[in-house]
Design goal:
Elements: E1 5-10, H1 14-29, E2 33-35, E3 44-49, H2 51-60, E4 68-72, H3 87-95, E5 99-113, E6 118-123, E7 126-131, E8 137-143, E9 146-159, H4 167-170, E10 182-190, E11 203-206, E12 211-215, E13 223-227, E14 230-234, E15 237-254, H5 259-267
The structure holds NADP nicotinamide-adenine-dinucleotide phosphate (NAP) and manganese (II) ion (MN).
Residues 50-52, 55, 75-78, 125-126, 162-163, 165-167, 170, 228-229 line the site of NADP nicotinamide-adenine-dinucleotide phosphate.
Length: 268
């Protein structure tokens, strides 16, 4: 029988590299083959580092359907399931099939430029739309084709349930149980003056609603889109359409995993 192929991605720190070496040995001893470069033939992707290493791998390998497992090496590690001292338990449970997959929905932005061309972005945590050069941005927001508000402030963050505990939470957004599929539109420093009026709390949208964002001309036609921390500059943006993408990222979770225990242990 051909042995299962496993790919290991690390953030390159000394402890992550050491953990990778040790894990590779243990996996080989257990009949797996650790492959040197990413391939769609892998049955599992191991990410060693913090959440950043996991997010980096997702974007680098273009949101593969292959399950991920994270090993946390000294960061917050919200996505990360195990620590470097649990390698044997991990291999045992994995071999025995004692795990389940946690599907995490991703968000996409389809951007229409003035010349008629389109650009698409995908994120696991969030998509942020903000001005360039620390300026204020003005965005006209519609939900299901109905105009809702003209937002003025630093920008808008649209978080998935998985991303609700990241930047969204730091901005005062709510923590969402990943079993609820909703998008959270969180304002970043909304302005409320006699000149500008914006919602100051997050808006929670059901998964099938369409969200359209139109930058106001001319000063905000240049803007920045940030996807899980990766920034892209765009100019002459006509419309931004946001919604869930069809892509799901699968995380391996073991029997002891519980979302709210994890929230408690990482935040309180
Ligand atoms: P980073 O600057 O190291 O990330 C900031 C922190 O967010 C790290 O502690 C990271 O965990 C944590 N994090 C990432 N995803 C999370 C999640 N879903 N739930 C809870 N915490 C999470 O950059 P990074 O590691 O490449 O991560 C990119 C993310 O950073 C972005 O998607 C954004 O959400 C977040 N961010 C947060 C702020 C803020 O809170 N003010 C500002 C900018 C960006 P690790 O330590 O395990 O990496
Ligand atoms: Mn990080």
């Amino acid at each position: 029988m051909e042995s299962g192929k496993i790919f290991i991605h690390t953030n390159g720190t000394e402890v992550s590299t050491k953990t990778k070496e040790l894990l590779s040995q243990k996996l080989e001893q257990n009949g797996y083959s650790v492959i040197g470069s990413f391939s769609q033939e892998a049955e599992l992707i191991v990410c060693i580092g913090g959440d950043g290493a996991f997010l980096e791998a997702i974007h680098l390998f273009e949101f593969p359907h292959i399950p991920f497992i994270g090993i946390n090496t000294g960061h917050l590690g919200f996505f990360q399931e195990i620590s470097p001292d649990q390698l044997d338990d991990f291999i045992f449970n994995y071999k025995m099939g004692k795990y389940r997959l946690q599907p995490l929905a991703t968000v996409k932005a389809s951007i229409l430029l003035k010349d008629g061309s389109t650009v698409n972005y995908k994120s696991l945590n969030e998509i942020i739309i903000k001005a360039t050069d620390s300026r204020c941005i003005h965005l006209n927001i519609s939900i299901d084709s109905g105009f809702i508000e003209r937002f003025s402030g630093d920008g808008l963050l649209i978080a998935t349930p998985a991303g609700s505990t990241a930047y969204n939470y730091a901005l005062g957004g709510s923590i969402v149980d990943p079993r609820i599929k909703l998008l959270q539109v969180t304002p970043m420093a909304p302005m409320n003056t006699t000149a500008y009026r914006s919602f100051t709390s997050s808006l929670l949208l059901p998964s099938d609603l369409s969200l359209e964002i139109k930058p106001e001309e001319p000063e905000t036609s240049r803007l920045v889109i940030a996807c899980d921390g990766l920034e892209y500059g765009l100019s002459k943006v006509e419309n931004i359409s946001i919604g869930f993408s069809g892509t799901v990222v699968n995380l391996l979770r073991f029997e002891s995993y519980d979302f709210w225990s994890k929230v408690k242990s990482k935040f309180l």
